[in-house]
Each structure stands twice: as C-alpha cells, then as structure tokens.
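Project standup — Tuesday

K.O.: blocked on the structure for the chain from last sprint. Re-posting the sequence here as requested.
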Amino acid sequence: LGLVFIFAPAALTFHEFTAFRMNHYALNGNEMGCKSNVVNYEARALNANVVTRRCVLMNMAEISVDRVQELISKKAGSLLISIPKNRSLSKEEIENWNQIEEVLMEEAIETSVFFTYEHPQLNTIFEEVRVSLNSDHAPTATAALGNVFHSNGYQIVGYASPPVPVKQSSVYTIQGRLSTRQTNPTIVIVAGFDSYGISPHLAKSSNSNGSGVVALLEMARLLSKIYTGTDTTPSYDIVFLLTGASHVNYISTKTWLDKQLSSDTAEGVILSEAEFVICLDSIGKEGLNFHVSKLPKQDSVGHKVIQAIQTAVESLYPNVTLNTVPKKVNLANAKFAWQHELFVVKRIPGMTVSSFSNYKETGRLNTFDAAVNQDTLFQHTHILAEGIARYVSKATDDKICIICNDMVPNHALMRRTTEFLTDAERAAQLIKKDSSIVSTLELLLGKYVQEVFVLEFKAGKRDPAFQFYDSTEVKLFAYNVKPAVFDLFLAIGVAIYLGIVYCMVKSI
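H.V.: unblocked you, prediction finished:
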C-alpha cells in the first residue's frame, strides 16, 4: 500500500475565482462571440505544444493575435485570460488588445473564453503552470516521464450550466423633449448609453459612449434655459434620445424608429417633424468629425447645422479642428457603421459627431476604454450646445454668444456623471428596466426636459431580431493535481505490485 500512497494523484488544493465569459449574442439568428462555457480541462501555458482539449492560461503581457487564432484553430478547449484591474496599461498593450478583441468577436467560436482579474493566487497558478517542466517541451522521453512523477498540474473546472437564451431579451430607450408648445420642426439629439467590451461585466466605455451621454445630458441642461428664458424664442423643438444596445448594431435605435414609423399617435409625429438628427459618439478625445452619408448641399439643414457649429468653434475654441467625413450607407452590409445611418435609410437627414475619423478605427470599441479627457469633453460639449442653440434660435450675428457667461457647461457635474457611467454595469445584456442605469438616466434627463419616459423593446418570440445569452459570470475552480497521464503509470505500478504480492503468496 505504501506505493499507492506515494503516487496517489489526489487533488492537493483548489482555488476558487470569478471569471467573466466572453460576449455571446445573436443578431437575426446569427450567433456572435463565445458559444460555449464548458471548462473542465487540464491547464496549459500559452507556449504549450499540445492545446487540444486543454485550458490555456495567459495574461495580457504575453498574448498575441496570431497565437489566439492558432489556439482556436487547434481546438483548444478553453482560454483563460487574466487582465489587470488597478494597473494602467501602456499604449502598446491597449493597441494589441484592441486587435485581439476584433479577432475574437469577428464570428462565433466554439472555444470557451473567460477573463478574470489578476490577483496573487491566480498569478501563482499561472506561474507554476508556465515554469513547470512540461512534458510538451521535454527534450527526451525520459525527461517527459520524470516530469510526470515530479510535477503537479492544475485542472480548471467550471460547473455552470450551458448558456441559453435569456428568457426575455429587451433593450431600452429613454426619450425626452424640449418644446415651445407650438407646431415646430424638430431636431433630434441621440447618444447610446450602453457599454461594450470583450465581456459584458468588463465593459467600461468611458469615451465610447459615456462621453456622448455626458454631453447630451449637459446639452439638455444648457439648452433648457433658452426654452424657459425670455431673451430667445427657439424655432425648433428638440428631442433627446438615450438608446440602449447601440454597440450591438444599434438595436434600440432601429426598434425605436420602427415603432415611430408604425405609430399614428403623438409619438409617431416626431419623425414626421424631424428635420435633422445629431448622434453623439465618442467625443472625449481631440478633434470633432462630422460623419455624413454625403456632403450636405448648400443651404440644406445639414449644411446650416454644421455652419452653426463652425461659428461656435471660431468664437469659443478656435484651436479645435473640425472635419466633415462623407461615407455612403452600405445597404449590402447588415451592420451599420454609424448611428445616423439608421435615420438616413428612413430618409431623415443626420450625422454622427465623433472624435474618431473612421468607424473601423482601432480603439473605438474596447474593454479598457476607462478614461476621458474632461477638458476636451467640456470644450466639445460647449461647442455643440452653442452651435445647436444658434441654429434653433436662428441666430445670424456671429458676434452673439448664446451659451456663455453663467450658462457654460458645469465641469464638476460632467466629471461626476462620467464617473457614474464608467463605474455602472451598462452592457446591453445586463440592463433591465429596473436597472439603476436606466432609472438614473431617466431622472437626470427629467430634470431639464419634459415628456421623459422609458421605452422597452422586447425581442420577438419567433425569429427574434436580437437575442442575449446568460452565463455571463461564472465560478471557476483550479484543482492542484498530478497530470492525467500519471493515472496510467499508477495503474501499471499497482498492477506490478499486486502481481509481485500474488507471486510471493503463491510460492509460499
């Protein structure tokens, strides 16, 4: 029996930790992201030769796009990626990570992918797996055999049920209005309030699109003053929309538009009166780009709105650069590049204002978008508020400043709102009607505008246009065990031992 005790492969210890599964959703029946949450595999380091049906451990510092693609093609059972929680990342790390996110989210993958925050216990496990004499790299068969007896491995196990569609997937839009109580044309200002990252629980989206939400709320506060004051009489109503699931092909925007077009109530009048739509998307970095489906004609509404914003720049912040970027709507592509395109295909002119010059620009959608330049956001919000105020008031004197003096944006208020949005869980999959993010945004918008309410759009039960999946957060266990092949040698050892005992007994 001594031999059994010497070689017994019992799990010595185990560690429990929280992991976050990669994004998983469906659009028009096509699944995207990580389809599996199965993990019950032996741990392997990133440079292991044998990865089929193994759980490959890696951290941000060593991961690469090519290696991730190789692991998926070799049918690795699972990927477990540790990411920093309280450490600032270098520009190179963020750029590398942006490319990895794009690769992982291009299509549905069968390999289960999990993310977890770095912490001492997990770092120790990663290091032990990384530096142990791995039989994959042993120079000789003898060395590989020695490794089996002298090293301990880890089995990564998760006990979650397979992911299933959420019972009732819903997206939300918060709507409000500034009105002169007369029959006026309407300007619509839109910002998506959801976040996006490689995993719902990790998404911050401080700039994309927390900055757009902060700007919209502050513009609502500033513009409300010209609707309640006596110095100006706006010639337009302004509708404010905070849309959910904007990072998932603008689902909430599309469903809101469909509802408006199919409604003959007062709500449906918005689109018939809408003259122009301004979508705010990631405006917390240097420069403002006006993305349009085609260059606005002279004296068109789009031309006049852009001209009013240019006048605001010249009078307030002449160093801010403005660019108009035309891009035709690609109707052959089911995925929209910018939010205003959904309005354009409904024959409502509009534009998206963004610091990004291209919708494919690396970093527009990434997990580590957790910071905004507050001074830049302040300037951009002031510029847009002044430009829109000039347009709706039909101001013609370039020397007149409407959003000035005691009506400028509130730095402290914008910073607090940015911090709230960055800290809040607001990925589309996690938002419910009673979520704090929905109620808080409804409350904030309601302070400044009228007719504020939340619209819920539910996915159809048959052929749903969108579908979210559960099992976004799981508990994983790392069991410290002998390698699986050890069992074979143990069985052989026990058989030999029993054979010797049998022969000895028989010879007596």
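K.O.: great, moving the ticket to review. The chain has 14 helices and 18 strands. Residues 1-11 have pLDDT under 50 and may be disordered.
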